[in-house]
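Hi support team,

I submitted a single chain yesterday and got back a structure, but I'm not sure I'm reading the token output correctly. Could someone confirm the output below corresponds to the sequence I sent? I've pasted both exactly as they appear in my results page.

Thanks,
R.
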Amino acid sequence: MTAPRASSRPFRPPATRGVSHRATLIGIAILAALAILMFSLFDRRSSQDAPPGALIERGMSPGHRLLNLETGRTLPANSPRIQRADASITRVSARFGTSKDHVADLALSTRNTIAKQHPEDVLDVLDAALFATEGMPARSVPPLAPLLAAYAQARLSGASVTESRAVTRSFAQLAAKDRPPR
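Hi R., thanks for writing in. Yes, this is the structure output for that exact sequence:
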């Protein structure tokens, strides 16, 4: 056995015809972009399949949230019904001295109760509360929940929206007479 010869040249591995560093980075970037795209498509599909209760999003006004829950879909932010719902909720909240979210919850539950028998618009429910207490001094305004219950009872008994508003107004006036002074 002979000893290997010492060479004056340093050892260099044989040249390979592999992929350059730049091509590797481009490949990784493409794979990452595909993964992000697939995740966003999956995420979008799963949010569309969500139940109506999942439509509530941060930053939505109470009126927008209320109408989304009523319709079971997300309405565009520029819908004119949203402005009307927000204005009605604000007025009812101020008149009855309760939070906007509580007003929206009561209006939606009243609407849902009526809608089991026939179509009902949540804005009609809010308008009935405003109509019933129009011109009343703040100290004589009855609580919102019984007022909406009177409206729902009239609607469920077959009265039209206009007739139900009148019944609700009569209820509010009667309740105001029986209400002890604050």
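A quick pointer for reading it: Confidence is low (pLDDT under 50) at residues 43-56. Let us know if anything else looks off.

Best,
Support desk
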